C-alpha cells in the first residue's frame, strides 16, 4: 500500500529498574510531532503469540511499564513497539528477552525512623508494584556513629519487619542506612539508601 512508512522507534530496551520491568525507546529520527506508540509482548511459554498491552496502546510516552502485565515472573519475555501517526505506521521493533525474577534490579528502600526514649524503631518501605508484593524482599540495615567507619549490621530482615534498637548505651549523632536484598539464583542487593541521622540521648 504505497504508504510512506514512519521511522521506527530506536533504542528499544526492556529494562528492569527499581523492582519494575519497563520497555523504553526513543522516537525514530524525523518522527512527526503527533506520533503515538503501541506495545505488545510475548513470553517464551508461547512464542509467536504477541499479546496486547491495553494501557500502552496509542500512547505518547516513550516507555511502558510491563511489571503487572507479565503472566509469569519466572519466564523470559520480550516486548515490541511501533510508531503510529494517522494512517501511517512504522515496522515493529523488538527488545531483547528478560526474566523478571532473575533480572530484577533493586532500588534502595526508604527508611522510616522513629526515635523513642531509649529505643529506635526502624522499618523500610519499598517502591513495589502490588503484583510483586508477595516476593520475599529483605533488607539489610547499618547503624554507625557519624564519622566512624565501624558499622553495626542487621542483615536479612524480612521486608515488613521493624528493627528495634536499644540506644541506652549510645550517645551522639548516629546514622542509619539500608539496602534491599533478594535471593534469586544469586543474591541481589541494591545500593544503600541515603543515611538518616539522629541525635541520641542528647542532654540539654
TrEMBL record:
Family annotation (Gene3D superfamilies): Immunoglobulins (2.60.40.10)
PROSITE patterns: FN3
This protein's GO CC annotations: plasma membrane
UniProt keyword list: Receptor
Fibronectin type-III domain span: 8-105
UniProt xrefs under InterPro entries: FN3_dom, FN3_sf, Ig-like_fold, Interferon/interleukin_rcp_dom, Type-II_Cytokine-TF_Rcpt
Gene Ontology MF annotations: cytokine receptor activity
A Pfam family recorded for this sequence: Interfer-bind
Superkingdom classification of source: Eukaryota
Membrane-spanning intervals of the chain: none
Protein name: Interferon lambda receptor 1
Organism of provenance: Spheniscus mendiculus
Lineage of producing organism: Eukaryota, Metazoa, Chordata, Craniata, Vertebrata
Amino acid at each position: 500500500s504505497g504508504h510512506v512508512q514512519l521511522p521506527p522507534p530506536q533504542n528499544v530496551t526492556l529494562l528492569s529498574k527499581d523492582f519494575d520491568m519497563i520497555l523504553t525507546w526513543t522516537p525514530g529520527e524525523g518522527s512527526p510531532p503527533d506520533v503515538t506508540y503501541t506495545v505488545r509482548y510475548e513470553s517464551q511459554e508461547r512464542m509467536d503469540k504477541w499479546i496486547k498491552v491495553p494501557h500502552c496502546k496509542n500512547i505518547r510516552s516513550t516507555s511502558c511499564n510491563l511489571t503487572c502485565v507479565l503472566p509469569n515472573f519466572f519466564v523470559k519475555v520480550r516486548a515490541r513497539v511501533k510508531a503510529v501517526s494517522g494512517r501511517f505506521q512504522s515496522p515493529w521493533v523488538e527488545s531483547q528477552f528478560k526474566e523478571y525474577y532473575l533480572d530484577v534490579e533493586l532500588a534502595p528502600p526508604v527508611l522510616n525512623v522513629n526515635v523513642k526514649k531509649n529505643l529506635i524503631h526502624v522499618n523500610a518501605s519499598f517502591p513495589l508494584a502490588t503484583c510483586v508484593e508477595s516476593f520475599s524482599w529483605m533488607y539489610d540495615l547499618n547503624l554507625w556513629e557519624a564519622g566512624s567507619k565501624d558499622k553495626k549490621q542487621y542483615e536479612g530482615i524480612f521486608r515488613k519487619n521493624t528493627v528495634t534498637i536499644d540506644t541506652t548505651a549510645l550517645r551522639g549523632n548516629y546514622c542509619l542506612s539500608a539496602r534491599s536484598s533478594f535471593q534469586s539464583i544469586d543474591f541481589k542487593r541494591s545500593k544503600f539508601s541515603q543515611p538518616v541521622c539522629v541525635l541520641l540521648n542528647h542532654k540539654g
